[in-house]
TrEMBL record:
Protein name: 2,4-dienoyl-CoA reductase [(3E)-enoyl-CoA-producing]
GO cellular component, one term: peroxisome
Segments passing through the bilayer: none
Record InterPro entries: DECR2-like, NAD(P)-bd_dom_sf, SDR_fam
Enzyme Commission numbers on file: 1.3.1.124
Reactions this protein catalyses: a (2E,4E)-dienoyl-CoA + NADPH + H(+) = a 4,5-saturated-(3E)-enoyl-CoA + NADP(+); a (2E,4Z)-dienoyl-CoA + NADPH + H(+) = a 4,5-saturated-(3E)-enoyl-CoA + NADP(+)
Coiled-coil region(s): none
Superkingdom of origin organism: Eukaryota
Keywords: NADP, Oxidoreductase
Enzyme class: oxidoreductase
């Protein structure tokens, strides 16, 4: 789909995107590039990184990739430094790297729980922390008078509770808390805007194939109003809005991009039945028992 934004809204910007070579991260990389940014991708798989960079370059986007695992402090330091050395500055950090699998809490080992927190929560903080000296107002390589922007990819699972996702719910709750706290501290001290995006189910992503395999969820989908699959494009457009000047007054927010799904509950009673039943119940409730004053309504 064509972007509704002008093609130069990120002109001259440099973005580092973890998990930027696949899924939602790759679409964000692509759209940032199409809107004028140079992009650096971080990921664990060389082959995936290489092919992502060649696609981006074929679109005329200045792109580079660095192998690294956000769980390793030394990788985070090296990749952030390499991005700076390659492009001369960093304006935007997107934390899109994440880990996930479906498992009941009973069957999840503490190490499995920790692994996802290490990737999503600690990894996000580590990357933010490493990038701070480049993103902050007056930071290394910055010739502008403003700070940069961070986006943390989150989820909606933890707003209530979700089956077989205790590890990810806990991890994303920590990510949202990190988003808000950094927005406060770094917004105040360094003019950096820190926001999140909470995607709903997005087609063609590793998350979708891992978490919502057809054989498991087809019945759920039928029973959940507002269940629609989003596109990676939807998330990339939200990201563009948040990091561009269009979102310059947005800080500390996590934008839910799920078509309203997280609000969804099964409809237990039809609209017609509500019409019928509600009136008669109301009527009965107004017939006051003996000794009770009548309603004046
Ligand atoms: N069910 C239950 N436990 C699982 C599991 C599953 N499907 N997959 C992994 N684990 C557990 C392992 O058993 C291990 O715990 P243990 O040591 O107590 O046995 C722990 O998680 C770490 O697993 P390991 O395979 O060593 O981790 P890894 O570092 O190689 O991989 C994952 C990390 C598991 C998060 C892997 O899925 C991954 O790399 N994901 C990235 C991509 C992704 O998930 N994308 C979707 C984003 S929404």
């Amino acid at each position: 789909m064509e972007s509704p934004f002008k093609g130069d809204i990120l002109k001259g910007k440099v973005a580092l995107i973890t998990g930027g070579a696949s899924g939602i991260g790759f679409e964000i990389s692509t759209q940032f590039g199409k809107h004028g940014a140079s992009v650096a991708l971080m990921g664990r798989r060389k082959q995936v990184l290489d092919s992502a960079v060649s696609v981006l370059k074929s679109l005329g986007i200045p792109a580079v990739a660095f192998e690294g695992d956000v769980r390793k402090q030394e990788d985070a330091t090296r990749v952030v430094q390499s991005t700076f050395q390659h492009f001369g500055k960093i304006d935007i950090l997107v934390n899109a790297a994440a880990g996930n699998f479906l498992v009941s809490a009973e069957d999840l080992s503490p190490n499995g729980f920790r692994t996802v927190l290490d990737i999503d929560s600690v990894g996000t903080f580590t990357m933010c922390h490493e990038a701070l000296k480049y993103l902050k107002k007056g930071g290394q390589g910055r010739n502008s008078s403003t700070g940069g922007a961070i986006i943390n990819i989150s989820a909606t699972l933890h707003y209530t509770a979700n089956w077989y996702q205790v590890h990810v719910s806990a991890a994303k709750a920590a990510v949202d808390a990190t988003t808000r706290n950094l927005a406060l501290e770094w917004g105040t001290d360094h003019d950096i805007r820190v926001n999140g995006i909470a995607p709903g189910p997005i087609s063609g992503t590793p998350g979708m194939s891992k978490l919502a395999p057809d054989e498991v969820t087809s019945k759920d989908r039928e029973e959940r109003p507002l269940y629609k699959l989003g596109e990676k494009w939807d998330i990339a457009m939200a990201a563009l809005y948040l990091v561009s000047d269009a979102g310059k007054f947005v800080n500390g927010d996590t934008l839910i991009v799920d078509g309203g799904l997280w609000l969804s509950q099964p409809r237990h009673i039809s609209k017609e039945a509500v019409k019928q039943v509600s009136r008669s119940i109301e009527k009965k409730s107004r017939v006051a028992p003996v000794g009770v004053p009548k309603s004046k309504l």
